[in-house]
Amino acid sequence: MAQSPEKSTRLGKRARKALICIVAVFILYTLAGFLILPFTLKLILTSKLASNLHRPVTIESVRINPYSLTFALKGLSVARHSGEGVFASLGEVYIDLQAASILKRGLVVKEFWLKSPRLSIVRDTDMTYNFADLIPEKEAKTKDTEDEGKQKEALAFSINNIQISNGSIEFLDLAKDVTHHIRDINTNIPFISNMPSEVNSFVKPSFSAVFNETNFRFEGSTKPFSDSLETTFKIKLEKLFIPHYAAYSPVKMDYKLASGYLSTDATLSYIQYRDKSPSLELSGLLEIKDILLRDRKGRAMVDLALFRVDLATAKLFEKKIHLSSVLIENPRINAVRNKKGEINLLTLVPEQDNTAEEINKNTNDKPKSGTGNTPEITISKVTLKNGRVRFADYSLKPPFSVKLTGINGGLSGLSTSGGKAANAKLTAKIDRYVPLSITGKIDPFGTELFIDLKCKLGGFELSSVTPYSGKFIGYTIEKGKLVLDLKYRIDKKKLNASNVVLIDQITLGRRVKSADATKLPIKFALRLLKDRRGEINIDLPVTGRTDDPKFSVGSVVFKMFVNLISKAVTSPFALIGAIVGGGEELSFIELEPGSYTLTSANIKKLDTLTSALFERPSLKMEIGGYADVEKDRSVVMNYRLLNKIKAQKFRKVAKKGVPSELDALTIEAGEYDKYLWKAYKKEKFEKPKNAFGLTKKIKPTEMKELMLSHITVTDDELRELATRRSKAVKDYILGSGKIEASRIFIVWPKNLTPKEKKDVSQSRVEFKLK
C-alpha cells in the first residue's frame, strides 16, 4: 500500500534532521577531540602540574585522536624550584587506548611509550634533596578507610608495548662532592596485565643504561599477578668504577681507593606458591678487577688484579650459599713499618667504637639463644695465583726488607657448617729463590677448631735478618741458611706441634751494641751446636691446650729455643748427630720410564748429595744406572711410534720452518688419526689389503697395535738408556764445580734391572759411597 505524500514528506524531514544531528555530533566530536580537548588539556595540565609541583611547567603540545583513541604529549618541561634550569623533562609520551577496554571492563592499552625522559636530582650539603618538597607527609588512615580500601577490587588492565627510550638522570651530590650520570636509559615491557586470561603468561621486561660510563643491563621474566609470583631476573654490570663511590663508604677510609672495577652477571629467581614457603635464589658471577689502595702519601699498599666469585646458588631465605669457586689473582701487598713502629696496613682496618665494644662485652656475658641466624656457606674451591708481598721495617737500623713472590695456593671443600676439614695448600718464594710451602687441612668453622698443617721453608738467607740479629742477639750475621719443617695439629683444643729447624753454616759478624740484645754467649753456643758440616739441627716439639689463656705457641717455642742455647753452653756434648741427610731415599733417584732427563725432584736429591760430598772430600761415589724392562721398553716403543707419526706432519710443516725439530712438533688430538694413517701406510710390514689390493684402512687402535708389534727395543738399547741415566747424574754433579771428576765413577751393573724395592721404580740410578 503506497504511503501518502504528506507522510513521506514528514519522514524525509525526520531523516534529514537525524542526519544533521549525526553530522553535527560528528563535527563537534571531531572539533572537541582534535582541537578543543588538546588545547584545554594542555592548559589544565600546565596549571595543575605547576600548582602541585610548585615549579614552572611548560608543555609544547598535546595531541588527541578521538577516533583511534591515542594521546600524545610533547615537550614537557619542569623547571627547578628557583625557576632556573630544568628539574625534569619529557620529550614525548604516547598512549594508544583500545575500545576493547569497554568490552573487557578494564584498561586496555595497545601501546605506551616515553621518549627522552630527563631528571636532575641534587642533594645539598645539608643532606636535603631538591625534590623533598614533593614528598607528601604521611597521613594516618582511619580504620574505616583501610577497610574500605580492602574491599575495593583492583582495576583490571592490560598495557602492551611499554617502552622508555633515551632516558637520563643526573645526580649532583653536593654532600659528597660527586656527580653521577645515568644515560641511554631504555626499558621495554612487551605487556603487563592482571586480566585472568593473561596472569599466567610471563612478562619479560628488559632494561639497559649507562651508569657513570658503566654498562648495566637487566632482563627477566615474571608472573606478577599469578599465584606463584614466579620471577627470574638477569642482571649484568660491566666495569663499575668503584672509586667513584668511595665517598659513600660507611666507615672512615684512612687510605685512597685509586682504582677498581666491579662487574657482575647474575640471575635472581623468586617463586612462592600458596601454602608454601617462598624461594629466593641467586646465582652468577662477581668480579672485582684492578683494585689499587694507596696510603696518605700516595704509596701503593694493596694492588689486586682480579677477585672473582662464582656463585653456584644462594638460597637466600634458607640462608644457604654455595660458592663454586673464588679466585684471587695477582695480589700485591706492600707492608711497611715506619720509624715509629706503625704498620701501614693497619689503616685498612676501621677504628673500633669503644662504646659498641662495651655493649658487645655485656651482650656476650649473656647466654646465647642459638645460632639459627648463621648462614650456611660452602666454598668448593678457593684459588690464589701469583701473589706477592713485600715487607719493610724502617724501625730498625739498618732497615729490614723481604719479599714473598710467586704465592700460589688454595682451599677446597670449605664450609661454615663444620664437621669436614678443607684441604689447604700454599706455595711461595722468599726473595725469589727460597721455597715456602704450607699444606694440610683446616676446619675453622666447626664446633671446635681443627688444624693439621705442615710448613716448610728451605734455605732462607739468615744474613738478610742482620737488622734483627743486631738488635736481639747483639751480632750481625755474615752468612747462614735457615730451613724449617713445622707440623701443627689442633684437634679438640689440643695442640701437638713439631718444629724441626736446620741452621746451616751460620757465621756471626761484628758485635752490635743493643739494649735489647741477649746476655747469653751466643758465639760459644753456636760453636757447640754445629756439627762437623757446620749445621745446627733442632727439633722443638710443643704440646698444650688452646683453651688455656696462659698458653702461647710463639712464647713456648721461643723459651724452648733459649733453653736449648743455655743447655748447649752448660752441657758441651753433641746435641745433634752428624747425619748426611735424606736417609735411604738419597741412595737412588727415580726417573720417568723411557727418560734419562732429571726431574726437579732428582735435582733436589742430587743437590743434597753434592753438598754431602763437598763437605767430605775423602768420599767417592759410584753411580749405577738401571732400567725397568717392561715399562721402559713400552715407553720407548711408544716414543718411536709417536716420532713416526710426527714425521708425517713434519713433512707438511717443514717448509714453513716451524718447528725446526721433530721433538718440538705437537700432534693435536683432532689430527692424530690422520697422521697415524699416513705413518701406517709408510710401514714396510705386511698389512691387510682391501678389494683393490691397496692398504686397507683399519681402526686407529688396530693400526697402532700393528705398528707397535713391529717396533723392537733390545736389552742393549735399554742398557744404553741406563748408562745415559748414569751420565746425566754424573754431568749434573760435576757441573756444580764442587766435586772433582776423580771422585765420581760410573759402574756397569751386572744386571739390567736392580733389586726390587717396595714402592720404588726400577727405572732409577743407584749410588754407593766408597
TrEMBL record:
InterPro entries: AsmA-related (IPR052894), DUF748 (IPR008023), OmpA-like_sf (IPR036737). The chain crosses the membrane at residues 20-41. Pfam families: DUF748. GO terms for biological process: regulation of protein targeting to membrane. The keyword Transcription does not apply. The keyword Transmembrane helix applies. This is DUF748 domain-containing protein. The lineage of its organism: unclassified sequences, metagenomes, ecological metagenomes.
